[in-house]
Design a protein that fits this description.
Helices cover 30% and strands 32% of the residues. The protein is of the alpha+beta class. It folds into two domains: 120 residues, no CATH class; 274 residues, Roll (Diaminopimelate Epimerase, Chain A, domain 1), CATH 3.10.310.10. Helix 7 crosses helix 11.
């Protein structure tokens, strides 16, 4: 996979380093590149594999450097045979195609990935690219306003052509807590969204809903986006500063509530006794809540993953705090997620749990800190106006775009 990005000019030192990696040396007097015998050895040596990494050069530089390299080759007495000349010519055409398409997965004959050897040259690369299906995605960090923190999310923005059997494979390949796939609406929303963890599809989750709203609402120029999920339509209100979306607030599905039948087993596995009733809230995902005595105890927890996984398909939320500030950690090993950096589907029920048991008042908005122990700090906001009206909000930032070619 090659991430997309703007083409940029390289300074002299960086250009020389990159050219040297593929057997070229920088031409000191005019900034071009002169072929030397190393190039002939590189392209002509059999059974040798060399990674081809980031060979993009600005159009103006390519036009200036390549003819100068030919001239220097003649002056230095370096003669390339017809096969090498053909490889260089076809390589230039591949570069042009990649520059036009943006982010591309360069897959060569016999399954290569940006690798060239004696049989696996750039011949036929354009044909290979044209014959492969492309699935574009966007990566967002959710419940944060800083890149490389919060909870990662991959959003495949048009999943209509992705085969059903590939959805779980792609989610497993991304290996984030969740990956979403966007389809045309079917029930009155703006879009339909399907959510996959690395191991299974789920009907609803919070950070995928918020992150998908951020990704889609910008191009669609919406201040509210209605997303169809497995638990009905979830509206997300968006706040902007100028053209930039800075905050989103979703109205979550109403959860069911019941005592957790395995409460004793869970508390034994965690080594604590909850100071509030241990209950399960299900709004599309089942979450159980264990109240610790202090935030320090939550931070120090070292879970027994095997015992927690044996409790079934639930999210295990360990929390502590007071007033409007709370700390939580969420473990879901049965879903293929050891610890989640930010869990929007658990934040709303946590606010309801606290209100039901007198820790806060209905209508109070709480701040929830999560993900610190796994170096993905996140900040979530939640408010239970009533048992039927629960809102969760936060920020998100888009950090990458890419494309699978399969």
């Amino acid at each position: 996979m090659i991430a997309g990005g703007r083409e940029r000019h390289l300074d002299a030192g960086e250009r020389e380093h990159r050219l040297a990696a593929v057997g070229l040396v920088a031409d000191k007097d005019d900034g071009g590149a002169a072929p030397v015998r190393r190039l002939a050895e590189l392209l002509g040596q059999r059974a040798r594999r060399e990674a081809v990494i980031d060979l993009r050069v600005a159009e103006a530089e390519r036009g200036r450097c390549l003819p100068r390299a030919e001239e220097r080759a003649r002056e230095d007495g370096v003669r390339r045979d017809a096969r090498v000349a053909q490889l260089l010519s076809e390589s230039a055409r591949v570069h042009a195609a990649v520059a036009r398409e943006g982010a591309e997965l360069v897959r060569l004959p016999r399954g290569g990935l940006g690798v060239a050897d004696d049989e696996q040259s750039h011949r036929g690369a354009n044909d290979s690219l044209a014959s492969m299906a492309g699935y574009r995605y966007v990566v967002a960090d959710v419940f944060t306003d800083r890149p490389l923190t919060g909870n990662q999310l991959a959003v495949f923005t048009d999943a209509r052509e992705i085969p059903e059997e590939r959805l779980q494979d792609l989610a497993r390949e991304m290996n984030f807590s969740e990956t979403t796939f966007v389809f045309p609406p079917e029930a009155g929303g703006h879009v339909k969204m399907r959510i996959f963890t690395p191991s299974k599809e789920i009907p609803f989750a919070g950070h995928p809903t918020l992150g998908t709203a951020f990704v889609l609402a910008g191009p669609l120029q919406l201040i509210e986006i209605r997303i169809e999920t497995g638990r009905g339509i979830v509206p997300v209100q968006l706040e902007r500063e100028g053209a930039r979306i800075v905050f989103g607030r979703m109205e979550q599905p109403t959860p069911t509530i019941e005592p957790f039948a395995q409460a004793d087993e869970l508390q034994d596995a965690l080594g604590v006794r909850s100071r509030l009733p241990v209950e399960v809230y299900d709004n599309g995902l089942a979450h159980v809540y264990v109240a610790f005595a202090s935030e320090a105890e939550v931070a120090a927890l070292r879970p027994d993953w095997q015992r927690l996984a044996g409790l079934g398909d639930i999210g295990i939320n360990c929390f502590a705090g007071s007033g409007t500030r709370w700390k939580t950690r969420m473990f879901a090993p049965a879903f293929g997620v050891a610890e989640d950096p930010a869990t929007g589907s658990a934040a709303g029920p946590l606010a309801l749990h606290l209100a039901r048991h007198g820790e806060i008042a209905f209508g109070d908005e709480i701040e929830i800190v999560q993900g610190v122990e796994i170096d993905r700090p996140s900040l979530l906001f939640a408010c239970a106006h009533s048992a039927e009206h629960i809102e969760v909000g936060g920020s998100a930032v888009i950090v990458a775009r890419g494309e699978f070619r399969l």
